[in-house]
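Hey,
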Amino acid sequence: MSAQQLNLDTIANNLANSSTAGFRQRRLQFQDMIYQNLVTPGAAQSQQTVSAGLQIGLGTKSAATEVIMTQGDLNQTNNPLDLAIQNVGFFQVSMPDGTIAYTRAGSFHLNNQGTIVTTDGNPVLPNITIPSNATAVTITQYGVVNATLAGQQNPSQLGQIQLATFVNPGGLASQGSNLFTSTLSSGDPVLANPGGTEGLGTLQQGYLENSNVDVVTEFVQMVLAQRAYESNSKVIRAADDMYSQVNNMAR
């Protein structure tokens, strides 16, 4: 019942973030617990026969929460600083403590210095500053940032957005605020330009990636978790009734 409660908490978190840009759903994984060996499998019952064993399982436990890294749907916003990654990759974000975090949420804007930052004000790496006299900003699918300045006809190149990828992106640690940090499980980040030979995805300007949570599937999983919880509670009541009858017979 405790394991199913954690399962329900995971489903609730997925549903709560079904509208969070760049969110990656999680799935709880279970493991069976230790077994009581009443008769060890392979034990000799006689010179001619071998026992198949008699083992009693002691339940289940929560083992891990797996991050599902499937692509979310793209939502057109027409905001020139909204970026969506089509396929593999993460944006790099410089944190206040000097560490680097990673995100799929490309809802960026400018701070008072003209630097491209996240919704929390953390700079996107590499740092790119848009001049205050820029009349238009374009970001190509390969991450090249161009701006048309007042009085100029041809755009000026301001910088290049790089993406990060990991050997095991499912091993990233969620930090909240749409951010991940690398771990020993994820491996070190591999940096490259979008759409290059390294296999990273391309950028879509004026789009945001929606959460990859399938609301219908999560509701189905919620019902299954509730039914499993109810079934386990009935087993506990049935076992309690059986022990009660045994005690009454002893009297």
